[in-house]
Amino acid sequence: MSTNATIAITDGKSCKAVYLHWDGYIAWAGAVLYDDYNTREKAEALIALGSISSLSERIAPEPGEEHSFDNPAENVTVAYCRDRGEKMELHVFGDLSPSGDKAFIEHLSSQVSGGNYVYLFDTRTEQWSVGAVHGFLKSEKDDFPEVEPGVFYPLKKWFEEV
Question: For a Cys staple, 6 with which of 11, 48, 92, 118, CB 3.0–4.6 Å?
Fold first, then answer.
């Protein structure tokens, strides 16, 4: 069973978002986004792929490296458009600014992935945040019992001592 998520980027005025099919929970998608897509350029390049089947540490294969939807290169993100030839899916919201509230998280989720997790990269701060529609997994709450659905939290909460 897959854990769908929404991955989005904002400049405070507009928002672009894509669907992630596999492993959208914080221990995988959150860690990969935090560690490997931690600059504006990297986050923008990831979103530019459109909908994503599986997120990995590398955005593209090296020149000459074999990579396809059915036979992905090791640690390379698999995108539906680039790797399977499907129609590009990129959701653009021109009149939304992230408020961190439940309505914004639910809107992004319902319009893009229907998944529980929404990851948001803010280009003004170059920081990832995560919100959950229905709640965080027990393992994700063990060290942070105060986290609640409908609120954006900095991803560093899970990966750095704050």
Answer: 118
